Amino acid sequence: MINLLSNLKIAVSENIYLKDPESSDLGKRIVEYGILLIDEIGFDSFTFKKLGAKIDSNESSIYRYFESKHKLLVYLTSWYWAWIEYQLVFATQNLPDEEQKLKKAIDIVTRVVKQDSTFSHINEVALNRIIINESSKSYLTTDVDAENKEGYFKVYKRLVSRISQMILNVNPDFKYPSSLASTITEGALHQHFLKDHFKSITDCNDSVSPSEFFVELTLNAIR
Amino acid sequence: MINLLSNLKIAVSENIYLKDPESSDLGKRIVEYGILLIDEIGFDSFTFKKLGAKIDSNESSIYRYFESKHKLLVYLTSWYWAWIEYQLVFATQNLPDEEQKLKKAIDIVTRVVKQDSTFSHINEVALNRIIINESSKSYLTTDVDAENKEGYFKVYKRLVSRISQMILNVNPDFKYPSSLASTITEGALHQHFLKDHFKSITDCNDSVSPSEFFVELTLNAIR
DNA sequence: CAAAAATAATAGTATTACTATCAATATTGC
DNA sequence: GCAATATTGATAGTAATACTATTATTTTTG
Asked: In CATH, which of 3.30.70, 1.10.357, 3.30.1660, 1.10.287 is domain B74-222?
């Protein structure tokens, strides 16, 4: 993602925030240091008060952007998946072969994230760690269904649907394209977690990547 | 699991609790109604105070069994996976064919749970819902590594290792037995969640089960 | 039946996740 | 350049959480 895209903005659904954090300097700092602080101390210990201290601002000011820390997490995950979706669409659009497209798509959702200088206030590497460690907390709640209706998880579902469609493009008769796509997307996060914490139940490590595993799994499954 | 096993006890690592909840009436009530209350209001809203009110006991008494609600969750997930492991070992031991064994094992970790009358104070159906909705919160914490060293996740890892070994028994050359086993185990929980909340990104529903999907995925992957 | 163990009751603490109010500062529109 | 408006900051307050500590009461058991 080089400079030609420098005025690109990742679109996050408006009802997730009270005030668009992209619209002001304070908003951007909330997102920038919010990512760093959650990465540092974990989402459970993270509070708006601590974030306020970190950015020399006031707790009450942060509440004007996000109703709760939960909403901030939903915002960050939406941003992340929209960013991944953008890379996926961009990287696959001119590939001639459907299987190649699918392989590329799997690579993009499962690979280790590298810093993207297009969005200067977002540390994508730290954000990726947050997605691995915390993103499931954004939907494992009692009000998933209500929030889902409000469109909070739209981007994520759209990304999975795109991969599902790519699977069908390779094999229109495959019976489980959506389940396979969601297994790849969530499973990759899980494999990254396992290689960091529960090494004995994964084969992924410095030389075997989750990408390799999921590409092989997928191609064998749908052929 | 019929009556011949009526004095069976599921073994949960001793350092998870302060006092064995199986050792007293109050302990069993804590587990029994803890499951029901977490299932009812969700783990995030669950407190020992509320549980105390439900079982007509005191908050402070519950703290003598479990240091925190987090430890109770770790206990419940350990109990659950030990129970699944027991079913898996029991159901596969006399099968002659390795592929049949593996299919049976996958069925057991991915299927919808039915009530098991062997453990009268445990509602396995409610516990299964807790595993689907809350179990990842037991390890997505800042102290996973410390707790892992203490053996909190031993049962879970042993179960995944068993499945991994069964995969190898079918195909000793398969390169990713552990990753596949962990993907099946965690992926099944995820598919159950999706069919309840994000239907559009799964193919699982009343007629297509996660078991069917994962059996087919696995056999295609390792053949 | 006494001693020990388990449970209950009460109180207390620091922190969390906010809301409300008012003051200070910055921005903009004319 | 200044008034109106919007934004941010400061302070205070609240109910609930996640505990710990202490003491009283009840139950168990040797």
From this structure: 1.10.357
